[in-house]
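Many introductory courses stop at the sequence. We go one step further.
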Amino acid sequence: MSGSALYETFSRAPLAFERGEGCWLIDGKGERYLDFAAGIAVNSLGHSHPALVSALTEQAGKLWHVSNLYEIPGQSRLAERLVANSFADKVFFTNSGAEALECAIKTARRYQYVSGHPERFRTITFEGAFHGRTLATIAAGGQAKYLEGFGPKVEGFDQVPFGDIEAVEKAITPETAAILIEPVQGEGGIREVPAQTLRRLRELCDENGLLLIFDEVQCGVGRTGKLFAYEWSGVAPDLMAIAKGIGGGFPVGACLATDEAAKGMTPGVHGTTFGGNPLAMAVGNAVLDVVLADGFLDEVKRKALLLKQGLAGVADEFPDVIEEARGTGLLLGVKCRVQNTKMQAGLRDEKMLSVTAGDNVVRLLPPLTVSDEEIRDALGRIRDAASRLSTPAAAE
């Protein structure tokens, strides 16, 4: 028997935190860490945000769970607010991003079925994508390292190279139901999809009777400086999955849809036990109270520019360590010339937390509430870590 009673599926850092305050995590010894991981873009408003603490504790004293056998007023309110601030007409609440993607994929297949095209069940996806860890979403992501050892890949997903429109056009067949893409790939290495690419995908879907699905689990809910990343492109999807930031740390996900896309989702065809529970809805509404407040998203854009410009400066100073700064809003990354795990460890030595990604990138995903002072503090720590990893420094 191994030393831990836990599945050994995580290579955990030897750190345990007792509490958090805003952009900071504090361990059992009282050491403070600047948190630019934010639970992998989950803690959108930082740790222990008073509005979220208040909403959760107030709701906890009233009602936790009743199931979707009954009406849940907080669900209706949150859905109405998401609809009012997006392309969508309908919302289905889940507990996670993977469940939100499962719902989107099922909704797209069901749409084709009730539209008289039961043969249309395939979804075109993009290399480097990450859509979750269920059997369907690892098939959608298509990455060999996540598929290995889990039997035959779930049928119905066709990967094409990232951003390759010609390959998309060739991949469309009479069995294609939808196209699924992250407007900004997170796990794939903070790779933005150009607006013209998203516009062309919209055209292809319209021309071929397909649904366009956006995965905004990581890039949504203010992370790019707009409520949703798709808003920058000028086109809207038919379906969208969100999670992470909408709960600010509490497990919440949602599938957003137009009326037309959701027309096949009738009573009994899909469900959830915990999705949309009163606790989750109280927190989700509290998150929107903050993120939709006047000026909040403008501040995210301003702070993002401050951080990205600072990162570019560090990259210029240590080109042997950092190749480039990339990303949008507070969804940023540094593409490393050293191993990204070394950069992550170097930042941890500076008491700063980050997240690795594909393409040898280290992600920087601070809470949207990060201050200018904390951004400058972070840049100093990044510079110090890069200095230690730099070839002249390493040779000393």
